[in-house]
Amino acid sequence: MLIQSYCEVNTSFSHTWLDGGLSPCFYFTLVPTILLSISFLLGTLHCVFYQKFGTVMEPKFIPRSRLYGFQLALTVLLLLQFLAGMVWQAVGAGELPGYVVLYGCFSTLGWAWALALLRVERRRVLLMDRTRGHSAVLLVFWAVAFSAENLAFISWSSPHWWWGLENNQQQVQFALWMMRYIGAGLLFFIGLRAPGLPRKPYMLLINEDERDVENGGQSLLRRTEENQSTWQGFRSKVRLLLPYMWPRGNVFLQLLVLFCLGLLGVERTVNVFVPIYYKNIVNDLTSGSSWNTVSVTVGVYVVLKFLQGGGAGSSGFVSNLRSFLWIRVQQFTNRVVQVRLFGHLHALSLRWHLGRKTGDVLRSIDRGTSSINSLLSYIVFSIFPTIADIVISIIYFSTNFNAWFGLIVFICMTVYLTLTIIITEWRTKYRRDMNLQDNAAKSRAVDSLLNFETVKYYNAEVYEVGRFEDAILKYQSSEWKTQASLALLNQTQNVVIGSGLLAGSLLCAYFVTEGKFQVGDFVLFGTYIIQLYTPLNWFGTYYRMIQNSFIDMENMFQLFEEEEEVKDKVNAGNLLFRQGKIEFENVCFSYTNGKEILRDVSFTVLPGQTVALVGPSGSGKSTIIRLLFRFYDVQGGCIRIDGQDISEVKQASLRAHIGVVPQDTVLFNDIIRENIRYGRNTATDQEVEEAAVAADIHDKIMTFPEGYDTQVGERGLKLSGGEKQRVAIARTILKAPQIILLDEATSALDTQTERNIQASLAKICTNRTTVVVAHRLSTIIGADQILVIRDGRIAERGCHEELLLKRGLYTDMWMKQLQAQDSDSSSDTESKDRKSEKLQPPSTSSANHHH
Questions:
Q1: Letter string b/e over residues 108-145, b meaning 16 or more CB atoms within 10 A of that residue's CB
Q2: Where is this region: Disordered (predicted)?
Q3: Which single residue of 101, 184, 309, 756 has CA 20 to 30 Å from 283?
């Protein structure tokens, strides 16, 4: 091996651009020097901090990861590649320039130091570090290494590089470059995920571990990690988005999408030619060209500027046309997402809806659906075009100016994007916390307004306002952190962009003064660089917006991930209703583990019979109704209708044959007519009124000023409890089901109205299978069978007379209700007597007293 000179023959280190490409001597000196500086200087400082302020991680917190092993293997492979490349060139060529030795040695040292830092980060952790993932040193090192390999594309047409593959030497160099390119790229993208490091901050892991010990090993509730990257689960999120990206089944919208993508290509072309024609105008004016030449150039420039608009096409004709055409696609996406989510929420179980927070759900839906539109728009019309503009500009400056301009733009872009990603990932936790506090504040407000009456009952207005103010203060605290971190990010971006603009402008002005460039070239550079940095400046915003959209979508994705507790089986058929025979066979059920509500419940309701369920509160009466309607699936035994297991049939077909009058009736915020018509949407006004007559509410409705067009208010608050219940009975009458379930259907009614409705219900229930949950035993005397439920079991069964003869639990309940009625009657009589005494004249009262 012979080292004759540092650079190759007839070249020197000062020649940065050689035969249409970067000088290999210059490139292979600059790149390893930068990499070694990053890894050695910053890496050494980082290792010192790890040794001084860090601690050894406990092995149980270090995740086992094949990707981490892959990281190590890639790094070692790159190390060997540098050494092998240097040895091969020495043996194969016989002559070895000095820069090749420097490149091999510096690169080997730099990557060896990066490997050491990778192992240090896996074994030790900084206690002061509140985040997770790799250090900025490693991320910047991998980013610069990958970016440096991309610089080789600038020298595509240079004979000094390997792109021609003309001989064995170029083929080997190309293979080594491919190995470096793929290896450095994989290390950077895998490094963003940091597979060998814990997924949470180390201090948080320790604290959770201590809480687990204190709680006896009970697992914590599932929640979103505070510092979890929003790109985690990116593949699953994008997979969920794919159906909305392409409007399937709509050829017109598909053509619109393709046309809008074509307009994107037109915008990119226009962006290239606007600065070029601006340069031509300046050169024509300074060189004294003819008026015809200048006027044509100016005309073309104005047309291009009209198409482009201000700055970087933000308000040009092409951009506005694309935005206008995209409205239909955006509306399609918005509609599909909302309809699908709304349908999914209705498919969830009653258990989920009883535990939901309405305010949280509504905010999640609003932000989630709007974020999907934002995400698609930012990715398709902002991120991809910006990247294309950056790549085009680097190639243009490198080929039409010289390599220094392409290098300046490339370095600025790399540093800018790297810092943007790192800082944005760091500030993610503040944005997520702000969303949580926003949800809490809105949920607090909705909860308080929905319980308006309760607030008034307990004179708690001041307390509610105070709690709402506390929620707002917590939200504003998180909002301040979010805005402050955003200001830091913007300032960092401005420094990077300003530095690149200063360096490029000074260099271009220098070449103009030396006579190498024309004045138009300086104008071209200034115009193009500002045009380039405008989308580059927005790139940080787009990245943040995409990340924010993912954060906003997280809650909505969680709603999509909620499993349906009660599902139709794959081969489920429709319920074949014949007579309406209901059978409960050894049914067991519990809402939560360890607390059984029903235990081995068995009974049969023959077609046309009425069975009443009575018993103390909490014994499981209403649960039987819910299981029969299949709000829940039984955990033991089975329920049959006409011999068919209801868990084997479709829920819709089952519920089509069942009508329910619940204990707590909730109405829609609509007119009375529509609330009754909800029982059968196709019913006529006459049928609605006939149902109201049967439910003994028609006359009451007619006393209202607006009659059947009276608004009932939210949840029916404008009606009394009895009126709401009669509307619910009218709904069920209108539905005309074959099976009727009455859950305390007359509990909110006065005695006279109850008797009227009992008569109406008796007519409706004739020849229909009926299950009644009753608190007043007087209302179910005529039932064919009465089941007394106690502690989830059937304690007694029989008709009214049979149960009284048994002198058991039913008899005790009957006697207590009789005594209560007698007590109420005597109290009513005494109160009437007192009222009549108060109404007598004083003299008469006095005379009677003396007599």
A1: bbbbbbbbebbebbbebbbeebebbbbbbbbbbbbbbb
A2: 820-851
A3: 309
Say what the pLDDT of residue 197 is: 80
Adjacent-strand bridge partners of 741: 660, 771
CB 193 within 8 Å of CB 68: no
Instruction: Look at residue 123 in the predicted model and tell me its pLDDT.
Output: 81
DSSP, residue by residue, 798-831? E-HHHHHHHTSHHHHHHHHHHHHHHHHHHHHHHH
- Contact at 8 Å (CB) between 726 and 696? yes
Is 773 in contact with 580 (CB distance < 8 Å)?
no
Strands of 598-605's sheet in order across: 598-605, 582-589, 636-641, 644-645
Digit-coded pLDDT (tens) for 197-218: 877 766 666 555 544 433 443 3
* Higher local confidence (pLDDT), 224 or 438: 438
**What one-letter code names the amino acid at 5?**
S
399 SS3 class: helix
Q: What are the strands, taking DSSP E only, across 351-469?
A: none
- Read off the pLDDT of each residue in 148-166 and give the average, rounded to a whole number: 82
Question: Using CA atoms, how far apart are residues 605 and 581, in angstroms rounded to an integer?
Answer: 6
- What is the spatial order of strands in the sheet that 739-743 belongs to? 658-661, 739-743, 769-773, 610-614, 785-790, 793-798
Rg (CA), the chain: 39
Q: Are 437 and 471 in contact (CB under 8 A)?
A: yes
Distance in angstroms (rounded) separating the CA atoms of residues 226 and 447? 26
Do 34 and 108 contact (CB within 8 A), yes or no? no
Residues of the chain with CATH 1.20.1560.10: 251-559
The single-letter DSSP state of residue 249 is T
- Nearest to 628, CA basis, from 682, 596, 581, 695: 581
Query: Which CATH superfamily does the domain covering 579-657+738-806 fall into?
Result: P-loop containing nucleotide triphosphate hydrolases (3.40.50.300)
Dihedral angle sign, alpha carbons of residues 638, 644, 649, 655: negative
Which residues are CB-contacts of 492 (< 8 A; sequence separation ≥ 6)?
419, 423
- CB of 119 within 8 A of CB of 28? no
DSSP-assigned beta bridge partners for residue 760: none
| Helix boundaries (H) for 562-678 | 621-628, 651-656, 672-677
Alpha-carbon distance of 697 to 642, in angstroms, equals 34
Do residues 3 and 96 lie in contact, with contact meaning Cβ atoms separated by under 8 Å? yes
Q: Alpha-carbon distance 743 to 661, whole Å?
A: 6
CATH architecture of 667-736: 3-Layer(aba) Sandwich (3.40)
The residue with tokens 């049969």 is 604
pLDDT of residue 781: 82
**DSSP label of 451:** T
Other C-beta atoms closer than 10 Å to the C-beta of 528 total 25
* Distance in angstroms (rounded) separating the CA atoms of residues 247 and 560: 20
Confidence of residue 418 (pLDDT cuts 50, 70, 90): confident
Contacts of 494 (CB under 8 A, 6+ apart): none
CATH number of 251-559: 1.20.1560.10
Burial class of residue 752 in the structure, from the number of CB atoms within 10 Å of its CB (0-12 exposed, 13-18 middle, 19+ buried): exposed
DSSP result, 561-590: HPPPSS---TT-B----SS--EEEEEEEE-
Evaluate whether 557 touches 240 at the Cβ level (below 8 Å): yes
CA distances to 71, 555, 591 from 562, rounded to whole Å, are 35, 11, 18
Q: CATH 3.40.50.300: which residues of the chain? A: 579-657+738-806, 667-736
